[in-house]
Specification:
Strand order of the largest sheet: 4-3-5-6-7
Radius of gyration: 25 Å
CATH superfamily of the largest domain: ANL, N-terminal domain
Oligomer: single chain
Distance between the termini: 58 Å
CATH architecture of the largest domain: 3-Layer(aba) Sandwich
Number of helices: 21
CATH topology of the largest domain: Rossmann fold
Largest sheet: 5 strands, parallel
Helix content: 25-40%
Shape: globular
Structural class: alpha/beta
Length: 631
């Protein structure tokens, strides 16, 4: 690919001129898939850019993107690259305080939003003093009576753009050719596990080079199909739905709503599917629940073929030669069991299946490999535009994330920190020279992750370097590493391991309401609420099995001895986890200090009074007595 295609605008116009009638995007609307060709998409993006210019968006300005995945929101993000402005997507569930923090970073002059709910959020931001001049919405329902200044529909913005282009004949060329590789691609944010999220501007070059690295490593192909359902504020979504999709002409399919993703996936059957371990776990739980509710014959057939296929995959992962479940057995299993399950969930055509963000449980990973889905682990960060290392289909190991991608160099610092160098690495945190100087040194990104490279070149990620701590006896460990192993259990949604400076390790866990609730229903265990379910002795037995399994993999000095099952899940609205479900350890340890004391002072139970934030924004308190249990 030549240097003349070094910006999003030039790549988009290449796709429009050379493959104009191919499908760029589909979006489901009222049950019908609406198709947009590359030619139509490019025209829409240019008109949008001209429209933004007409309402005063200039180079260096920012436009906040609010809502779930929508074609027009993606088109708006692309159009802003033509103006050398910042597209700043935020999580659709972000609180007012989080949005105010983003607004304080850059000059946000407009907001491109999905619907009435997000319009209301922006109006609320205005009432707190934010100077957002224009609000452009996609879905008009409920907005007819609004008389807010600067409020306009998407169609009205495009009409302004068409008028602008007609009045300024040279504008089209300026929009297509006016930006360079170093100009902004997107304005994202770090997860904020240790403080306020930091602004991360990925240049167009970062996004395009990241796509080149992913393609060279076999992550996707020209003409692939994918579902756009991940949060637009997450680097993984941007890297695929914008960076890779524009660079390698991947067709992006947008579901009707978040709660129709699985149904819409079945209709599309994408060839690329990226999901967090928790999503793969939830899908596995859904499959298992369906099997348990089926006929005895179907259950027998399922276990006959699935158990043998899983055992075969375990042998392969252990490096043993295997031929016990290949050939005819595999073909019959595919026809009777594997194929129908994959078809039910839209996974029949998946060639590139990935999990990332954290470690995935062995049982989950082996299940999908047994089902015939070549699930692979990938590793990356927002600062590297999501793609750093990836497993190849034939080199899968449970404890590694694969080899660094072509175009990515990895070194391990003396203190065990993973260092990365690539054209996809960002230039520094936005208006934060101190944090940038800490993260970047001589072209290398200090990832903040601890790890090592094995003799075969595979990268092992242990966890955050800042979380490497020691017990009172000097045993070195990473809490996140142990927590991820606990979360391999389908019954544990979140965990916080405690033990720094102490004699023993203990943990606080949050049960998975869906998985444990279903188990309780099947096994006749009564309960009236999440808090009640979390303290049931029958549930304690489930958790105890998970703890014993993890202890088998830990050295003697790092065994987990006691735990508390908490009365509520960790919640991003309560500040306990980030929007991507990463633990805010300092907040959790301060908030549950009484529980931690009870884990170490010999108490049999602990009384807690917790403040919870409801969806309405109101706060309330919950009083509970939690049992301290021995492993």
């Amino acid at each position: 690919m030549g240097n003349e295609y070094n910006t999003m605008a030039r790549l988009l116009m290449r796709n429009a001129s050379e493959h104009g009638q191919d499908i760029a995007m589909r979006e489901k609307d009222r049950g019908i898939w609406m198709e947009i060709t590359w030619a139509d998409y490019a025209e829409q993006v240019i008109n949008c850019a001209a429209g933004f210019a007409a309402i005063g968006v200039s180079p260096g300005d920012a436009v906040m993107i609010l809502g779930d995945n929508r074609v027009r929101l993606y088109a708006g993000m692309l159009s802003l690259t033509m103006l050398r402005a910042y597209a700043m997507p935020a999580y659709s569930g972000a609180s007012l305080q989080e949005l105010q923090h983003f607004l304080a970073e850059a000059k946000v002059v407009a907001a491109l939003v999905e619907d009435q709910e997000q319009v209301d959020n922006v109006i609320e931001l205005r009432e707190t003093g934010s100077d957002i001049a224009s609000i452009i919405y996609d879905e008009p329902r409920g907005l007819n009576e609004y008389e807010t200044s600067g409020l306009m529909s998407w169609d009205a913005l495009l009409e302004k753009g068409r008028e602008n282009l007609a009045a300024n004949p040279e504008l089209r060329t300026q929009l297509i050719e006016g930006s360079g590789p170093e100009d902004p691609g997107v304005f994202l944010h770090s997860s904020g596990t240790t403080g306020k999220p930091k602004g991360i501007v990925l240049s167009q070059k970062n996004a395009i080079e990241g796509a080149h690295n992913g393609y060279a490593g076999g992550a996707f192909d020209y003409g692939d199909e994918m579902m756009a359902y991940l949060p637009m504020a997450w680097a993984g979504d941007y890297a695929l739905t914008v960076g890779a999709a524009i660079t390698y002409r991947i067709t992006v399919n947008v579901p009707e709503r978040q709660d129709t993703v699985l149904r819409d996936m079945r209709e599309i059957a994408p060839s690329i599917y990226l999901a967090a371990p928790r999503s793969w776990d939830n899908l596995l739980t859904t499959i298992q629940v369906g099997i348990e509710n089926s006929t005895p014959l179907k259950k027998w057939l399922y276990h006959f073929f699935m158990d043998r296929s899983i055992a075969s995959q375990r042998r392969k992962l252990n490096g043993e030669s295997d031929g016990a479940f290949d050939g005819l057995g595999r073909m019959i299993g595919e026809w009777l069991i594997f194929g129908p399950i994959k078809d039910q969930f839209g996974l029949t055509r998946v060639k590139h299946a990935f999990t990332g963000g954290e470690a995935i449980g062995e049982d989950t990973f082996v299940f999908y490999r047994g089902l015939g889905i070549q699930l692979r682990q990938l590793y990356g960060q927002t600062e590297t535009c999501a793609f750093t290392a990836i497993q190849t289909a034939d080199e899968v190991q449970l404890h590694t994330v694969g080899k660094p991608l072509p175009g990515v160099e990895v070194e391990i610092a003396d203190d065990g920190e993973i260092l990365v160098r690539s054209q996809s690495v960002f230039a520094g945190y936005y208006n934060n020279p101190e944090a940038s100087a800490e993260a970047l040194e001589d072209g290398w990104l200090r990832t903040g992750d601890a790890g090592y490279v094995e003799d075969d070149g595979h990268l092992v990620v242990l966890g955050r370097l800042s979380e490497v701590v020691y017990t009172a006896n000097g045993e070195r460990y990473v809490p996140n590493y142990v927590e991820n192993r606990l979360k391999f259990s389908p019954y544990i949604k979140d965990a916080a391991v405690v033990g720094s400076g102490r004699d023993q390790l203990t943990a606080m866990v949050c049960v998975d309401s869906e998985a444990v609730g279903h188990w309780a229903e099947v096994n006749g265990v009564p309960y009236v609420s999440y808090a009640d379910l979390s303290q049931r002795p029958e549930v304690a037995e489930l958790l105890n099995e998970a703890f014993k399994r993890v202890n088998k993999a830990l050295t003697d000095g790092l065994q987990l001895h006691r735990y508390v099952s908490l009365h509520k899940e960790f919640d991003p609205d309560d500040g306990e986890i980030t929007r991507t479900r990463k633990l805010r350890r300092k907040v959790v340890e301060e908030r549950y200090s009484k529980v931690i004391d009870a884990l170490y002072d010999g108490s049999k139970d602990v009384h807690v009074s917790a403040v919870v934030t409801y969806e309405t924004g109101e706060a309330g308190s919950v009083d509970r007595t939690l049992l301290v249990r021995e492993v």
